[in-house]
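Objective 1b: paired records.
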Amino acid sequence: MRILVIEDEFSLADIISSKLKKENYIVDIQNNGEDGLYSALSNVYDLILLDVMLPGVNGFEILKKVKQNNISSKIIMLTAKSSIDDKLEGFQGGADDYITKPFHMEELVARVNVQLRKNDEKINKDILEFGDLKLNLRTTILTCVNTSLTVEIVCKEFLILEYLMNNPNQVISKDILYDKVWGLENDSISNNLEAYISFIRKKIKAIGSKVNIKAIRGLGYRIEVSNEEVKK
């Protein structure tokens, strides 16, 4: 999943980014209001960590624009302002959560996880399942339950497979995968997606799974369970 951090304190932004990346999130940073608003309106982020006191455009203004444009990103406000009026302004503006500085990084990660996984109906929130596959979201280990074989899924392979498994049996366009995995920096990656899909297919096949990533000509990709018996 992809997170945008809009924070003008460079050191704090870097610390937040480093911590979230260890949780297997992909993180982008903007350090001013104008650039933060531009990135937020791209609608490629699952969650936005939004500081209130920003140069140029403040966090409340960004929040308002995001909601006016029906952006689906979850939003957690980050601010040194702790008065009830400020918190009410954030919640009334549509923020999903509000964290007052200073805060513990463990609390921030917990709040992020709640927002991004609170609709997950699985008992074990760290395991994503589809067909005979189980993807551990913390260790990035992919397991085939029928063979008990495992393989590590890394970097962008992990992000692509995670998104496909979260949207099973649906055709996901290449543009959506570009946006979710590469974000705004996708100008020169036209052949990269096909390469990563190929790597993932090989790993799935290597552990004996019946799951397949099917290319739908002119539309995109769909993860599905094959009816064919796996050759041993």
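Objective 1b, second protein:
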Amino acid sequence: MEDVLFTVKEVSKLIKTSPDYVYKLINLELLPALKLGSYKVRKTALLKFLEDNEGKDLTDPTKIKYLRGETSNEEETQKENHHKTDTVDNHCVDNYSNKSSNTLCICPTRI
């Protein structure tokens, strides 16, 4: 029978990290687990975790970064919404401070 559940120690060996790191992933709810006396991770949950995090730097799982300059959909949305064109004087307005920008605007609305 194929292993369906892995212990934290087995997961740490499979992904070549320490058990403490696996506990951190579990506590941050990045890696789903269940507790049957001790934490267990389903094989399917581990495979999904690995697939979902491909191309990411999880060295510090509280500050996940993308490798090679890739960005998440959320980061793309923030970049797209960073500048909005003011309808009165057609100047860029910084969404975060609502102040006119003194820098050259290359927003899609101005190009």
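The longest strand covers residues 38-42. Residues 71-111 form one domain.
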